[in-house]
Amino acid sequence: MGAGINPQMPRSWRTDTKPHKFCPGCGHGLVLKALGQAIDELDIQGKVVFGCDIGCSLLAWDFFNVDTVQTHHGRTTPVLVGIKRANPELIGIAYMGDGGGYAIGSQHLVNAAARNDKVTVILVNNTNYGMTGGQMAPTTLPGQKTETTPYGRDVEEAGYPTKGPEMVAAIAHEGAYVARGSIANLRQLKKFIKRALENQIAGNGFSFVEALSACPTNWRTNAAETWAFVEDQMGKYFPIGEFKVPGEKKEG
Amino acid sequence: MADKPIQGEKKVFMTGNEVVAWAALAAGAEIMYGYPITPQNEIMHYWTRLAPKYGRKFLQTEDEISAGFTTVGGVLAGRKAFTATAGPGNTLMQEAMSMAEMMRIPTVLVVTQRGGPSTATVIYSQQEVTMTCYGGNGEGLRIVYSTASHQELFDYTIKAFNTAWKYRFPTFILGDGYQSKMRESLTIYDPEAKGIELIPAEAYVGKSGIPGIDRDPAHLRNTYNLEDELYEVVKGHVAAYQRVAPEIVEYKEYDTDDAEIIVVAHGVVSRAAQGAIKVLRQEGIKAGHFRPVTLRPFPVEQLRKKADKVQKLLIVESAEGQLKRLVTDALYGITTPIETLLKPGEGVTVEEIVEKVRKLD
Ligand SMILES: Cc1ncc(C[n+]2csc(CCOP(=O)(O)OP(=O)(O)O)c2C)c(N)n1
Ligand code: SF4
Questions:
Q1: What is the ipTM of this complex?
Q2: Are residue B158 and residue B295 in the same domain, yes or no?
Q3: Structural domain for B108, as ranges
């Protein structure tokens, strides 16, 4: 891969495990790129412990040149909380899908936020369960078709989509950082992730970034439709921006 | 800050839960992650009172799933971490223990058995044998010490940390509600003053140097893409387990040399068995008692040798055949008749065992 011609991989990526294993067009790769750049810019490769969940995020188990532990579905947050509590010098990043964070692991997210645990949680919202084949997720939009909502999500039957950052911001405390970014604006996503990490490094409190992301394989969308879904449909329901910033300045 | 929680040796009169907290301190445990459930609560109560005085830490988690996984995290970070639970909490914690089994993570879990299934009673039982030995999806590659006294709770809690870190398999202290709550005298001690070397912990993640530059990154996973890959990993773990099992196995025998009938029991029930043997011997009945101290790995060879020579075996437990399953599995092919005294969730007295053996004769 010719440096200078193609965009450079983040320094913290592990080149010998690339190309990565996500489907073509998947948003995970973009979120991990933003994360890689944030790690590079903060120069914290030697201190990061990256945890990934079950779900497509597990494909990132050997993605970075950083210490990584892949754990059970929904349990990435407590594993990283355990690591951070045992060694506060480390920078813990828990990386998961919306199923891992908002369904099976929601009690861990809620309680880590309530305890103001000094870890950074990055949650990839692709409005479905990717790895298991496109079932409904807590974030599936009303009317959206999935394998378990074949006629579209009926909110009477299946409830409403979880608005994660809004929920976390509501229960989080002073010192917490909460934002929602999107792969449609990678620069901003990287900035949010970077701030979330800086917030942990400063020892302020819990940091949470949701990333709106694409799953073209399960959505069965082509490039244009994928992008339209992320930007228009998801963006409409899930507002982008910072929901909680220690001290002052919010963006979005 | 006092550096040694216990100086030299001390005679004390304590509840079992207090004993565990002291033992964990003495063993150099650095952090406990826990979630309340009876009868283990006071382990946390004593730990949270004592730990800050010795620079140790505690986190009360949101549930046992989290307590199990934060313990895994603490160990990955290179600390001697532990947790404690019982009954339905043990059920939830098996998910994390299964990860510990897969990744060879030296977690220490103290189980204070209570009645089951489900919430059942908060008091006492021996019904967590199967779950502790074989809980979680996997092959049961764990080490399980079943204690019978407060002295053993102290000794084996210290030992559990060493065993876990030496062999890197999840290690369990299988106590029970009686041991948790009752007071008994014992000697607590500083293990190092007794010549017990404490095996140091070591970090799995966050070692010094920049990964990919100064060293390889730790890339730990418990999910495998290919059947063959998993097969290799599990076969490797099984082989390692079988290799070290003879070093780990522990058992005790009472009057078994000339015994015609052997009572098999573990944990506190072993104390009733010991009492019964004395009474029976006075009556001229040649009874002996075999007690597995490690339920995993099970003292298979040792029990087989005995079982082959006696006329009858009597399995006594406060469960409906959980120990029995371990025994019959171990004795496969041996034709000695097996009788049982099974009392799920209830204690067993000396008199009951004596009565049962008399009837067998
Ligand atoms: C305890 C448990 N239940 C269910 C599963 C099956 N499972 C694997 S991945 C997954 C869904 C993942 O979806 P999400 O967290 O949204 O991540 P994505 O794959 O979309 O990135 C499920 C339910 C599992 N591995 N473990
Ligand atoms: S299934 Fe969806 S989320 Fe998973 S790798 Fe493929 S595109 Fe990405």
A1: 0.91
A2: no
A3: 9-194
Prior bond of B39 cis (ω within 30°): yes
* pLDDT > 90: percent of chain B: 99
The CATH number covering residue B93 comes to: 3.40.50.970
Say whether residue B226 is in contact with chain A using an 8 A CB cutoff: no
Encoded amino acid at B229, one letter: E
Q: How many domains does chain B have?
A: 2
Mutate to test the interface with B, among A83, A93, A95 (most CBs of B within 10 A): A83
> From chain A, which residues contact B within 8 Å (Cβ)?
12, 14, 45-47, 49, 54, 58, 61-62, 64-72, 75, 78-87, 89-90, 107-108, 110-111
Which pLDDT tens digit goes with each residue over B37-63? 999 999 999 999 999 999 999 999 999
| B184/B256 same-domain check | no
Q: Is B241 left (phi over 0), alpha (psi -120 to 50) or beta?
A: alpha
CATH of the domain at B272: 3.40.50.920
Measure in Å the smallest separation between the Cα of B140 and chain A Cα atoms.
18
pLDDT at A8: 86
C-alpha pair distances (Å), A227 with each of A68, A184, A210, A216, B220:
30, 8, 18, 9, 34
The answer to the question of residue B119 being in a domain is yes
Q: Are B6 and B23 in contact (CB under 8 A)?
A: no
Domains and CATH numbers, chain A: 15-244 (3.40.50.970)
Put simply, whether B16 touches A (Cβ < 8 Å) is no
Same domain membership, residue B188 and residue B289: no
Nearest CA to ligand 1 atom 17: A97
> Does residue B246 sit within a domain?
no
Of the bound ligands, which one is closest to the alpha carbon of residue A215? Answer: 2
Q: Do A82 and B57 touch (CB under 8 A)?
A: no
Quick one: pLDDT at residue A2?
45
Cβ <8 Å between B217 and A90: no
pLDDT, tens digit (0-9, with 9 covering 90-100), for A85-117: 999 999 999 999 999 999 999 999 999 999 999
Which residue's CA is the closest to the ligand 1 atom numbered 13? A129
pLDDT in tens, B108-148: 999 999 999 999 999 999 999 999 999 999 999 999 999 99
The contacts of residue A204 (CB under 8 Å, 6+ apart) are: A118, A175, A176, A177, A246
